[in-house]
Write the structure tokens for this entry.
Amino acid sequence: MSVFMQRFATLREAGDCAGIIEAIPYARLMGVEFCEQPAGELLFSLPFYPRNIGNTMLPALHGGLIGGFLENAALIHLIWNRDSLEAPKIVDFSLDYLRSARAQPLYARCEITKQGKRVAHVLIEAWQEDRAKPVAVARAHFLLTTG
């Protein structure tokens, strides 16, 4: 097990969501946040920062930022919910932009739809004010190592 995964396990056991983000440089740079909801579901959020604007005419969040946010959410969600402490490796990531993400906070939830011995499939949904009106949806496949 890697040093990162040992640290992640300790932070997960402590319920230290902020510590996990601090351990992932890209998530920290974007400003990703997450918390565990009472039902055990993880809610990811990306507060609005002016540096995250991609289209200044609308203004709208940068598409790459949205993709990075959703990919990080899927990875963190999978590691948080797995028994194994081996780091999964992303194999495929597919993202559909459904509408412009305005200059305001972005939220995401993930669902593990399949987790076998070698591969996991995660669905990710992002929205802003109304979860019923997603701005983007994504699908991620991960290779699971067993040690």
